[in-house]
Design goal:
The complex is a heterodimer of chains A (443) and B (1033). Chain A has 443 residues and is of the alpha/beta class. Chain A is built from eleven helices and 17 strands. Chain A is globular. The N terminus of chain A is likely disordered. Chain B is 47% helix and 10% strand. The chains are: A alpha/beta (443), B alpha+beta (1033).
Chain lengths: 443, 1033
Amino acid sequence: MNKHHFGRRTFLRGLGVTMALPWLESANVWGDEPKKDRPASEAPVRIATLFSGNGFHSKEWWAKGEGEGMELGKVLTPLKDFRTKLLFVKGLYHEEARKGNIHSSQTGNLLSGAPITSGGEIRSGTSFDQMVAQTYGRSTKVPSLVLGCERSFPGVHKNYSMLYSSHISWSSPTTPTPLEIYPALAFDRLFKDAAAPGDRSVLDAVLGEAGDLRRNVSQTDRQKLDEYLDSVRDVEKRIESAGRRGELQGWRPTLDRPDIKRPADGIPQDIAEHMRLMCDILVLGFQTDTTRVTTLKLNNDHSALRFPHITSLQQPGHGIDYMIHHLLSHSDGQDWLKINQFFMEQVAYLARKMEAIQEGPRTLLDNTMLMHCSSMMAGAKHDNDQLPVILLGGAGGRLQGGRVLDYRGKPDRQLCRLFLSMMDKVEVRPKTFGDATKPLEEV
Amino acid sequence: MGTPPIGSALRRGRLLGRSVWLLAVAALASADDFSAQVRPILQESCLDCHSTKKQKGDLDLERFTSLAEVKRDPKVWEAVAEQVASGEMPPKKEKPLAGAAKQTLLNWTHATLEAIALAQAGDPGPVVLRRLSNAEYTYAMRDLTGLASLDPAREFPVDGSAGEGFTNVGSALAMSPGLLAKYLDAAKEVAQHAVPLADGIAFSAKTTKRDWTNEKLAAIKAFYARYSGTAKGESRLVQGIKVDVTGGEGRLPLARYLTATLMYREDLRTGTKSVAQLAAQLDLNAKYLGQLWAVLNDPKPSLFLEPIRASWRQAQPADVPALVAAINAWQGSLSRFGAIGHIGKVNGPAGWQLPVNPFVAAEDFRVMVPEGVAPKAYLVSLALLADQPSGKLTWSKARVVVKGKPDIAVALPVAPFSGVIEVTLPGGLPKGAEFLVECRLAKDVSEGACLQARVLTAPPPAALSLVPTQAPINKKKGGLWSDGEGAMGFAAPLLAAEGGKVRQELLRAAQEFREVFPVALCYARVVPVDEVVTLTLFYREDDVLQRLMLDEAATAELDRLWAEFHFVSQDALQLVESFDALYQFATQDANPNAFEPLREPIKRQAAEFQQALLAAEPKQVEAVVRLAADAWRRPLKDGEADQLRALYRDLRRQDLPHDLAVRRLIARVLVSSAFLYRGEKAVAGEKAAPVDDWELATRLSFFLWSSAPDAELRALAAAGKLHEPAVLSAQLRRLVQDGKAARLAREFGGQWLHVRDVASLDEKSERHFPTFLSLRGAMQEEAERFFADFFQQDRPVRSLLDADHVFVNGPLARHYGLKPVGEGWQRIDGVRAQGRGGILAFAATLAKQSGASRTSPILRGNWLSEVLLGDKLPRPPKGVPLLPETAPPGLTERQLIAQHSRDPACARCHDRIDPFGFALEGFDAIGRARATDATGLAIDTRAVLPGGVAVDGLNGLRDYLVTQRRDDFLRQFSRKLLGYALGRAVQLSDKPLIDALVARLQTGEGRIGGALELIVLSPQFRDVRGRDFKATP
């Protein structure tokens, strides 16, 4: 990616600041980026990044074999229908994430590989999803959607702010991207027509004021003011028509407005329902091409989630309510495995929905890179010498599933290399990212 | 060239000499002369081509049938005078004007123009409504917000220039929908920098709450750092994690103060120096220094201070470390630090820095049994008061404890009240064996009894003395992370009867010590990390700092910083979530009830903060209303404030949250015509009238600062005083002295000399000049620094040409062959002798007026002639062949030009411009001195200038300009400066003012300040044309 692709507007949109005036000279603002590697008639590649905290069961996160013959550990069984589209990546890690303590310092840089500051200060690195949002993401109304199913904790744990363990997505080294945990507001963010709220009123007011001024000035000055007034009127007109989206060249999304109702206000009582709704919104954002980058944090690394609706194997007759997620992970027992599977069911739900959406010759899943990752391998050990990562989907034909990639014992096994690979598939090509300088050839 | 040739015409008129000139005015400027003498000449020599019918070159001279018509369109006649005087007209191939006819025509034209100029002198001229130029917009935005980092116009299209060639002329500053949309974008972007505060808004370089919080935090830390010293942070282990308890920073910087009291002890004693003077001299806090001095010299006895005072009285400055160590030991005995993270929980600490009072009636001692066959323990008691009270001290329950074995009793002899008991312990015990013993004052002890008890395993010194009681021992072992503080023990406690007078005395003495020798002044860390899960987000404890060091104003500043910090960070709201998380975690492996006392206060404070947020909303709206007055550079008119408020309400009705509505309101202020344009009211009628004081303030500040008036100018405008000449002159001087006048240097100097874009000039051949890219920024900056110094130091205008100094940084100095001191920007004097000095030798101009790979004497000569001297050169003829980028083999660049200019058609102009360039051939295409050109041929810097003057090189050229062309140079400079100040082309009616400027600059030193004052006090600068102004006299 060239340097000039990271302009101000781009940057601000990446921050979620609605600054864009799409009718300006950038005529292709709704369309495709220049210098695309792929034809404009193809559906765009989408990136979904999912996270659940505290790793997985120490014995049951594994996969071997290839394609249909791939065998999966118990944690991954919910994904068995998608084996041919599953890339199981073993042995990648972040050097920086091993330098601090546990949880916060393992999570706040999970998507950036950046050094992380302790002592209650907040400094990490811009995460790869936001890097994509600030470039590739500007092609859509919403550069990126950053969702969560558990709100963030601002306190400090073992010398590191828990903002780190609550945020994997960072729009700048000092700013975790604000999370949307309310399904209704996430829905609004995508579909409420608020490209530039208040602009119309602002310009009206400005027009009135200049009109007053016009009466008291000389003839030549009046001409100058008219130049201004005409410009204001012109911009107003453009705002009116901005609501109507310009015609895309070639590819069009299969849905141009949401086909589900706006979710109810507030947060659903049931965590399963909460996650389900967020997954629906994620798919909807992709399907309508309102956004191409979504990051969904299913829970925090210091997670206080409980799962009363899931029956406990260890305490028969009860829900898994006796322990919050974070401490449950220390137990590494049957109930922990069940919760792992519950999270993987969310991934499977997403995959199933995406697979059902046909976008030309491919499905939405084929056009997506759906990553799920965690901050550590096994919650019982807090170990992050290798991180659990899976990728689902085809990235528009650029990603080959049904494989296990094992980087254990190999040099240069930085997780940031995987991010470089993923960014490469949407033509975002920084020279370096985090501690990596080259993508993974195999991905 | 778009500028009309007035200057040259006037200049030629001036050649007549002043007195002759006036006679000529009287004699020639009559209607009859035009008909009788001038029209026949026109008929004879001009009208063949410039008739109403033919209008060659768009010129119709036939239409002028009377003097009145000439007066209606004097510009045409300025051109006529110019063309005839220079010999351009009649053309060479036509019959020349007879000598007498030419003189008659010129005399008459000059006289007529002069008469018109005098009649209209002081006309404010046509100043078209000016949009702020991109530079002005940027500066105004920066000044308004106080954010030097803003660059809102970086994506704007480039401004056009007009008038005298500057970008501040209304007619060239267009507006378009595209640009307006960019203004809206930029206004919204700037609005993102607004930080909502409880009493209004402030601006920050950053745009997120997180970053604002960090900024406020940094401000508080910086405040603390002004007073306190640092120390190595001490940490404690909590569940295997080191957490910082002491905060590191925020310590009382004792050594510096003690050193001051010792080094200047005599001065302070004798009153040679007051405490305040000494504090100022040593950059110490006077309030604390005074208290410390008083305490050190206080004769009143105080148990813990006394030994310190005694040492201090004997001490020399070199003894400070020992003195500090002694004080530190007692500080550690009488104070401790609590963990802040859970302040407020059950049994939690009351604060961070806490008093320790190691005064007990009994103490359980526990020491490790030393290795060896017959290890010893020494039970030490030392009576502390001179008059021995009655009573008994008992040591009891002496035993040795070995894990997993029954205790071994140890027999003790009867103890003296004050003295040492030596006890022999059982030997050969496993590691970890401990000796335990209880020490207790008997019930019957008298009130006055006081002693220090210790248990040692090495023999005490023969003469016992009071020792620091040492840091308290936390007796608690194990427990949950939610537990509060346990009981404390002491290694060397002071025993005194409970409730007795001595106990009271000890407490008072300890307090006296802590008051003057606290360990820390404040919790400078602010963000605590001293629990496994630290609940408290930000912690303020600076009462000690306030008491010892701050005056009322400083305390108020600190309070304000903290209030802003809380408001911006919204920690009261965050704490609710933090608490919930902590509580949830505690339900799993600790006791959540420990935190129950915190629940209500946190909820209450959150609710209160919500109220505070609501209460702040109208204040933030009002802050934007105030901002509007500043942004619009005038008081708000009737109704304008209400309109702003109404817009805010309207936006809220559209469901915009408050924060966004305020930002849109700011955008509205900044995209307003009142901000983007420099509107000036014209009074009704034909006559010019003074602009009002607000408009005058704006004119002045945009002239000198390229930006809006500051608070002082606004205050003078509001008071209606600015138009008073003395006030206006004083403000002129103030503004020029201000750092913002560097913008005058950049905008005026840079645009006049055409070097404002050198920093981004990328036409140079990288192959020929690899160093240029890294130097071009410095080249432009040199010009800006030179002009800034010129204006601010009130230098003679001629010094622009013959200055003997340059401003360079290291790389540029080496580029010039000068010897810099370090790499930074510096002034180097005596550079004329080294072939530099003044604008002629700027690398910026020399490089700009060169080709990509070779010099261009033509460009340099043309620049010197037109830009510095104001010569009016004819346009080059069509079909001029392009010169090669590099000189062909065997030719110097000069010879290449000479060959080109040999054509007689070309020579007419080139003879006028090239020689200037030849004289500068001693500089290569990026301004380095050279003796040979790129191919090694010798450089020839000799030239014969127009008029036949022979010069050689820069020095010769400079001498020529300063002596023989000084008047032309000063006139051109005056004209450019006036054009820049007025934002329009200089016109005929400005001639008297230009004359006055030149006269002023020819007098005495001819300093720039005089010229600036003449301009600012001129009617042109202070008046505006009437609304119904008519061009005809």
